[in-house]
């Protein structure tokens, strides 16, 4: 047990999917996992363990933003011994080539967060995905015919930037940053710190260039495709 997690040692599988939204964690557990049981309910930040294709896997919500994710991820690694952590989320689009519903598989995660910057003194640390997870996700997505982009993500601490639209993201879109979400850089930094594997896969749901947004119907289908992909990668299918 931790201040944020009531699970007992052994309640989690070594591999976990990490959505931000607790109700998405519940939806994944109920619709994808076999024999799922709830292992955490503290603050309604729900966690479940079950199986996918006969292999144990957990799903744990992280809440929104890097500080919240960092608490859950730190504890999952250090108190529960997790080894493979895959974020499944949504992101905004910063690149005209990325269409609503496309996946962005975050090869790296740039950030404005002090959570990463403050740990490295004069150095700019580059938070990166685990290569094998990244490769498997890209290969699976291609094999399934999914539109997926592998590249640099921005993990911002700010959802409502002072400047509207793309202006809030400075030069990043011109340097190949494909999308913006709020968690991956902290996940990758903690994974590096504690020598575990991490990946973030996001469905692009709102384009900051065209202002197109995903429809409710498409959201459900796209999330389903993304979760299936993440589960296959998670258990090494
Ligand atoms: N910004 C940050 N996070 C997001 C966005 C966004 O536009 N869309 C989905 N997650």
What would you say this structure looks like, in words?
With 237 residues, the protein is an alpha/beta fold. Helices cover 30% and strands 28% of the residues. The chain contains six helices and nine strands. The protein has helices at residues 22-31, 66-78, 114-117, 131-143, 184-193, 216-235; strands at 15-18, 34-40, 47-52, 55-60, 84-93, 103-111, 148-155, 177-181, 197-207. A five-stranded mixed β-barrel has the order 5-8-7-6-9. A hairpin with a 6-residue loop joins strand 2 and strand 3. Helix 2 packs parallel to helix 5 and helix 4 (131-143) crosses helix 6 (216-235). The radius of gyration is 17 Å and the shape is globular. The mean pLDDT is 96. The chain binds hypoxanthine (HPA). Hypoxanthine binds at residues 90-92, 156, 159, 180-182, 205-206.
In a nutshell, what does this entry contain?
The protein has about 240 residues and is of the alpha/beta class. It contains 6 helices and 9 strands, in the order βαβββαββααββαβα. It is globular.
How would the global form be characterised? globular
Could you tell me the number of beta strands?
9
Give Rg in angstroms. 17 Å
Spatial sequence of strands, sheet with the most strands = 5-8-7-6-9
The percent range for helix content is 25-40%
The largest β sheet comes out as: 5 strands, mixed, barrel
Which regions have little confidence, pLDDT < 50, spanning 5+ residues?
Answer: none
**Count of helices?**
6
Topology as H/E string? Answer: EHEEEHEEHHEEHEH
The end-to-end distance, rounded to whole angstroms, is: 31 Å
Question: What is the structural class?
Answer: alpha/beta
Average pLDDT reading: 96
Beta-strand content: 25-35%
């Amino acid at each position: 047990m931790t201040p944020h997690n009531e699970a007992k040692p052994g309640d989690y599988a070594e591999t976990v999917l990490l959505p931000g939204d607790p109700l998405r964690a519940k939806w994944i557990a109920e619709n994808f996992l076999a024999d799922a049981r709830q292992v955490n309910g503290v603050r309604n930040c729900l966690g479940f363990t079950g199986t996918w294709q006969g292999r144990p896997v957990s799903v744990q919500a992280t809440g929104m933003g890097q500080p919240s994710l960092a608490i859950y991820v730190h504890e999952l690694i250090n108190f529960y011994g997790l080894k493979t952590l895959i974020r499944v989320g949504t992101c905004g689009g910063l690149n005209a080539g990325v269409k609503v519903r496309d996946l962005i598989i975050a090869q790296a995660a740039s950030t404005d967060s002090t959570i990463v910057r403050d740990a490295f003194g004069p150095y700019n640390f580059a938070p990166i995905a685990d290569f094998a997870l990244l490769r498997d996700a890209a290969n699976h997505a291609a094999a399934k015919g999914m539109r997926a982009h592998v590249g640099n993500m921005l993990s911002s601490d700010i959802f409502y930037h002072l400047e509207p639209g793309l202006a809030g993201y400075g030069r990043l879109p011109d340097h190949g940053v494909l999308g913006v979400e709020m968690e991956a850089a902290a996940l990758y930094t903690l994974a590096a710190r504690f020598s575990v594997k991490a990946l973030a896969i996001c469905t692009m749901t709102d384009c900051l260039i065209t202002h197109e947004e995903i429809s409710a119907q498409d959201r459900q289908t796209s999330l389903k495709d993304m979760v299936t992909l993440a589960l296959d990668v998670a258990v090494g299918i």
